[in-house]
Design a protein that fits this description.
166 residues, mainly alpha, two-stranded antiparallel sheet, 6 helices, 8% strand, globular
Amino acid sequence: MLESRLDNLVRDADLYLQAYANGHPSQKHLREAYEVVQKVCYRDDRREVIIAMMAVGYLHDLQPSRFVGTADAFGFQLARTFRSYAPSLSVGIGWDHVKGKPKNYYRDTSAKTMRSLATILLETGLPAFGGHIAAKVLEDKQLRRYRDEEALTLLLGTPTLREKGH
């Protein structure tokens, strides 16, 4: 089920980029976001990408204080995590005269492209599944905590209050 969501994302990316190649107008940042999707999703370890996206959603629900910097903090972190699975983001190679060896040049992805990528990734629902898992984990921890307190009460009996003089 989770892989089908990623497959749908790849299909959407292919269709959008194919329409762009055929001369249809496109939005630059959305096109760049779909190019990143294509780079990442044609890897062999697609399950690792799915798990990483779910992990960001899991972390968002368990520790929301990590994502309070801006309104888009969660989306940018999700896009950064997803983009880290791209095979290579270098755009060229040049010669470094000081070190005497080739140097890779990288192009930073614009904030608008990252925002578009985050929107695309959130539409898959994969981070939300991670959030659901986090909610279940928290619920299970609460139940376990109350069970532990009940067991302790059964072992030790009901605590009684003693007066200081006795």
